[in-house]
Design goal:
Pfam family, one: Epimerase
Number of strands: 9
Strand content: 15-25%
Keywords: Membrane
CATH superfamily: NAD(P)-binding Rossmann-like Domain
Shape: globular
Order of helices and strands: EHEEHHEHHEHEEHEHEH
Helix content: 40-55%
Number of helices: 9
Number of domains: 1
CATH topology: Rossmann fold
Domain NAD-dependent epimerase/dehydratase: 10-209
Structural class: alpha/beta
Radius of gyration: 17 Å
CATH architecture: 3-Layer(aba) Sandwich
Subcellular location: Membrane
Organism: Cohnella faecalis
CATH class: Alpha Beta
Distance between the termini: 17 Å
Length: 233
């Protein structure tokens, strides 16, 4: 796709592991002149391209409009854990209700592309609550009829988290020596750097593709690597 100047990127989940990397890359990307972060609290830094919109995600559809979303690339990196959220109900609100509300607004106001971070294990038929919720939001976003929907399903995310996740830290430590053994059909289970996910999100939005595209973790890594071969991100 031709890299058009003056584009708008809208980011939900800008304070998370992937979201922070995504905002940084979008601010450096030549295709975007505006990067609008939908936040509940200030990001703590400024940039000539950056606009912060403090909103209540419970009233998301009431607080964003056509002027914000028309022809924009919308990036959704919202996500939590049941421990962080405090209950299954609150987890579902963050990982299902908020992304779906953003998707409805993107459809209503003519966003060019909607890119969301899901999970490798997502399936609406999963016995695991986490994976089932991820699968349900993928299903219901696909039913909206967005101009273009890209779903990324990363494996275990590597990066500097602000919150403590002891179990995940152990998995990350173990993933490093095991990663080299994951070849063939197992390659998609390798842990992936949050920067690669952010890089692939932008590349997917800028590239031409089908109306509904799903990228598994190994495909995310390959896309990010292809981008870096052309231009450091």
């Amino acid at each position: 796709m031709v890299q058009i100047q003056g584009g708008t990127a809208v980011v939900a989940g800008a304070t998370g592991l992937v979201g922070q990397e995504l905002v940084r890359m979008l601010l450096e990307h030549p295709s975007y002149s505006r990067v609008i972060a939908l936040v509940r609290r200030e990001l703590g830094f400024s940039h000539p391209k950056l606009e912060e919109r403090r909103i209540s995600f419970d009233r998301l559809e009431e607080e964003i409009d056509e002027q914000l979303l028309r022809d924009a690339d919308v990036f959704c990196a919202l996500g939590t854990t049941i421990k962080q959220a405090g209950s299954k109900e609150d987890f579902r609100r963050v990982d299902y209700a908020y992304p779906l509300a953003l998707g409805r607004a993107a459809r209503r106001y003519g966003a060019a592309c909607f890119v969301i971070v899901s999970a490798m294990s997502s399936s609406e038929r999963s016995m695991m609550f986490y994976s089932r919720v991820k699968g349900e939001v993928e299903r219901d976003l696909a039913a909206l009829g967005l101009q273009r929907l890209v779903v990324l399903r990363p494996s275990l995310l590597l990066g500097d988290r602000t919150e403590s996740r002891p179990g995940e830290r152990l998995a990350i430590v173990l993933s490093r020596p095991l990663g080299a053994l994951m070849i063939g059909p197992l390659v998609k289970y390798r842990a992936i750097d949050s920067r690669d996910v952010a890089c692939a999100m932008i590349a997917a939005a800028r590239n031409e593709g089908p109306a509904h595209e799903v990228l598994e973790s190994n495909e995310i890594s390959s896309l990010a690597a292809a981008v870096r071969r052309k231009r450091p991100v």
